[in-house]
Design brief:
It is a single chain. Among the domains are: about 50-100 and about 110-170 and about 270-310, no CATH class; about 175-260, no CATH class; about 825-875. The radius of gyration is 32 Å and the shape is globular. Helix content is about 20%, strand content about 30%. The protein contains 16 helices and 46 strands. A hairpin with a 3-residue loop joins strand 19 (about 375-380) and strand 20. The protein is an alpha+beta fold.
Length: about 900
């Protein structure tokens, strides 16, 4: 009996342990956010029954006034669906397509592209992607075919308030050889052969041998791939009009061919798509109506481009034979200019996706180091008129493309335009050893968003890259709630390093130990010493004070790291600094994590790649160019990417535990990650919606700072850090500009990356860029020597001991303070000579910066190499 009771107690004990374990694993789980979708237009029409649309074959007006306002008129060519916008003040025009024949005569392929309004790629059932196709010869102006005359149109137009909609059926109408079977079966063909009076006998005998093919036992076509137009026309009547062999289709013919061993295919992809073009007070809006898209084969749309020749920047004026002047404004990094006709025709054309890599699909080999595109903005500046283009919907799926006249396509136009992803893909390697091959794995469902570009026309003093930036700033103010602050005051931004984790060994057994580079008392000492030097206009970003220090754990609560200080000590610290008008921004990360703390949580909360693997934020090993996690000797676990479904739940738990006055957000607002779990796909545009949703909630509770923020996060920021100080040095580009900085100037404080961290640029160059771009100064500091971080994941912090930087901070701050730059912001910028720039602040201060390796003279002022000259400064 006692033995039975003991057994029962053991069972009950084990059951309790099991229940506690289950409760620990599954209780307090994060709640998923509700599924978010982009708002898209209703479009209940099919192409055949498009109510209110008129077939373009019945339209003849080549210059129809569609809409007008006090500033512009919108004209439409009904016979091509091309349009142009006329500025009523200057009389200048912006055309959707070139309005004259290309003087270079680049050939029909390029000419057809110039006349198209949409370019597209598709992929077949094997995952292979097509070349670029255009809709000119597939919709706007079909070549002569067996059943249509040259110039036949497959699009329809509907006039709407302030604009029009054009509904394209994009389809190759040519009847090729694959519309007909290579072989005819004996039981089908022999009765016709035997009947000499059969009306189809003569045409079939002309097309097919009357002797059975020994290999297949069927009657084979005489000249299959080289069938003449006459033969195809006669066979089309037999197979498709008279339906002698029943209902026939191109697909049926190819299936019959495959049964006889002939598997050659040429996919004829077709689809429907409608665009909406509307005039507004400052320009024009172009929108893809997503609900109009219909696909008509096993192949699927991969991407589309809209009006790739919008703006028609011809290289040479055909009337005067004088080269047109102007440039393209490219948002790469800080911003860049590509001059018209710069002669770099052999350079690779510019092409880069907005907002950087999808962090769920980082490559397994280290990519080229380059700057990201942070803002959904680009522009074109011509002599008398220009435009700023803002991608207002679908920006996370956009790629900016630009090229110079005479480039790869050898045409006469300087052009800049976006293309948009309609599905995502990832490469996968199948097989092993010598028998490996790559395939593209595509997502199934079409991305649901109405891709939209707003064009704002520029003229007069605004027709330059400063005007392009101003157009986007005004858009953010009017549409996104930006507040322009003329009294904004620059501050020195100190990024202080707190707790860190380092692997140690005891009797050969590894264990992780927490240390601190800067505790709260030491931070106060750093601030005090800077105050003694006259530097008292500060804000602090404090890294590593909670949840695992620099190597962050899951941020579902606020756990203060005691090596830096307790919660009580933090409150005392931030309150003391608040008396000196110093804000403290603790860092937090709801985007990725090194540790989920609970078993199985990693599977629940991590995003997936398209190929099925869990997504990680790769840190690459430079010698091997592989992720550190692939290098067995490093013992490094890459941070996992958190699903967008849990951003809001994480933040709410974190903020409920302790609400900071200010927060430095890592990941959210600066990176995007999709999630590609089967049947639960979240595309990047949806991930952006989840981020905006949580940012809206955050800004109700605290001031926000974001590192290298993306354009959609700007309206939520108090501080933007780590902006790129230059663009990627692509050959095709001509010079760098502070495009992003001009957008933010006067709205929020912003910085470049910390001046004292390891960089390919020296300290003087970085300081020069801060002066040129109107950026606050930022330094990453620690009280202790950062040499202790050797052999950790944080080797980038190798020069942060604060005592080594006090004199540099003092000298650079004095330049800012003594020239009244701390209470001013950038309002104008221009290049006045090669590598010499003029920056104008709103208080009248002008800074000339010289990036040449030799001195220059500007208006009688001598400026040394890599140096500056200030006009109108001084106290």
């Amino acid at each position: 009996m006692k033995k039975i009771n003991l057994t029962i107690k053991i069972i009950l004990f084990l059951l309790v342990i099991a229940l506690i374990s289950v409760a620990y694993i599954f209780s307090f789980s994060l709640k998923k956010s509700n599924k978010l979708f982009a708002d898209i237009m209703d479009f209940p029409y099919s192409y055949e029954e498009a109510e209110g649309f008129i077939d373009a074959n019945f339209l003849t007006n080549e210059n129809k006034l569609i809409a007008s306002n006090n500033n512009y008129e919108l004209y439409l060519d009904e016979t091509t669906s091309h349009f142009y916008l006329k500025d009523l003040i200057s009389g200048e025009e912006i055309h959707s397509n070139p309005d004259i024949d290309d003087p270079r005569d680049p050939g029909p392929a390029v000419t057809n592209r110039q006349n198209g309004t949409i370019e597209y790629r598709y992929f077949n059932k094997n995952g292979s992607q097509s070349a670029i196709n255009q809709n000119y010869t597939n919709s706007i102006y079909h070549p002569e075919t067996l059943h249509s005359e040259e110039g036949y149109r497959t699009y329809k137009i509907k006039e709407i308030e302030d604009g029009f909609q054009v509904f394209y059926r994009i389809k190759d109408l040519e009847i090729d050889y694959l519309y007909f079977p290579l072989y005819l079966e004996p039981d089908v063909f022999e009765p016709i052969l035997a009947d000499r009076d059969h009306p189809a006998r003569k045409d079939l005998v002309n097309a097919y041998w009357d002797i059975i093919d020994n290999e297949t036992g069927a009657y084979k076509a005489r000249s299959y791939k080289s069938m003449s137009g006459i033969v195809r026309k006669r066979l089309y009547k037999i197979f498709y009009e008279d339906k002698l062999f029943g209902e026939y289709s191109r697909e049926r013919a190819m299936e019959e061919n495959a049964r006889h061993g002939y598997k050659e295919e040429e996919i004829k992809f077709s689809f429907d798509i409608a665009l909406q073009i509307k005039l507004h007070k400052e320009g024009i809006e172009i929108k893809v109506i997503n609900n109009s898209i219909k696909e008509y084969s096993d192949s699927k749309l991969a991407e589309i481009s809209l009006y790739p020749y919008f703006g028609t920047a011809l290289d040479i004026d055909p009337l005067t034979n004088i080269e047109n002047e102007g440039y393209l404004v490219i948002p790469d990094g800080s911003g860049a200019v590509l001059n018209f006709n710069n002669g770099k025709t052999s350079a690779v054309p510019y092409s880069k996706r907005l907002y950087g890599e999808d962090m769920s699909l980082l490559p397994y080999e280290m990519p080229e180091e380059q700057e990201k595109i942070l803002i959904p903005l680009y522009g074109m500046v011509k002599e008398k008129i220009g435009f700023a283009a803002i991608i207002t919907e679908g920006d996370a799926l956009a790629t900016i493309n630009a090229n110079v006249s005479g480039g790869v396509s050898n045409d006469s136009y300087n052009k800049i335009y976006p293309n948009f992803k309609l599905r995502e893909y990832e490469n996968a390697v199948l097989g092993s050893g010598w028998n490996t091959y790559k395939v593209n794995l595509w997502t199934k469902d079409l991305i649901k968003v109405d891709f939209t570009i707003n064009y704002y026309l520029l003229s007069g003093d605004d027709n330059n890259y400063v005007g392009v930036a101003k157009a986007y700033q005004n858009y953010l103010i009017k549409e996104k709630g930006f507040i322009k602050r003329e009294d904004i005051s620059d501050k020195i931004i100190l990024e202080l390093l707190g707790a860190y984790e380092k692997r140690k060994f005891f009797l050969g057994i590894p264990y992780d130990s927490m240390g601190s580079l800067t505790n709260y008392n030491q931070a106060l000492k750093i601030v005090s010493e800077l105050n003694e030097l006259g530097i008292n206009n500060l804000d602090i970003i404090y890294k590593g004070i909670t949840n695992g220090g620099l190597e962050n754990d899951l941020e579902n609560k606020v756990k203060f790291e005691r090596k830096v200080g307790s919660k009580r000590e933090f409150i005392k610290f931030k309150n003391k600094l608040a008396l000196e008008n110093i804000n403290v921004y603790p860092t937090t990360n709801f985007f990725s994590t090194n540790n989920f703390r609970k078993p199985f949580a990693v599977n629940r909360y991590t995003t997936n790649r398209i190929r099925g693997d869990m997504a990680a934020v790769f840190n690459y090993n430079i010698p091997t160019r592989l992720p550190n996690s692939e290098i067995t000797l490093t013992n490094i676990i890459e941070p996992k990417v958190i699903s967008p479904l849990y951003y809001q739940s994480l933040y709410q738990k974190y903020n409920k535990n302790y609400s900071f006055d200010n927060l430095m957000i890592m990941g959210i607002g600066s990176n995007l990650a999709g999630s590609y779990k089967k049947r639960k796909v979240i595309y990047l545009n949806e991930s952006q919606l989840y981020q905006e949703n949580v940012l809206k909630e955050m800004v109700q509770n605290q001031n926000l700072a974001v590192s290298e923020p993306l354009g959609f996060s700007y309206s939520y920021l108090t501080l933007a850090t780590d902006l790129p100080l230059e663009s990627t040095l692509y050959t095709v580009l001509d010079y760098q500009i502070p495009l992003v900085q001009l957008v933010l100037s006067g709205i929020v404080n912003y910085t470049h990356k910390s001046i004292n961290l390891a960089s390919s640029r020296d300290i003087d160059y970085q300081f020069l860029k801060a002066l040129e771009n109107g950026a606050n100064l930022k330094y990453t500091l620690s009280y202790e020597d950062s040499i202790v971080l050797l052999e950790t994941n944080y080797n980038e912090y190798m020069s942060t001991r604060y005592t080594n930087w006090l004199s540099t901070i003092k000298s650079q701050y004095d330049v800012i303070k003594n020239n009244n730059l701390d209470k001013a912001h950038l309002v104008d910028h221009k290049m006045i000579a090669s590598k010499v720039f003029e920056s104008t602040y709103n208080n009248g201060v002008v800074i000339i910066t010289n990036y040449n390796l030799t001195k220059v003279i500007v208006d009688g002022n001598e400026i040394e190499a890599i140096d500056f000259f200030i006009i109108g400064g001084g106290s």
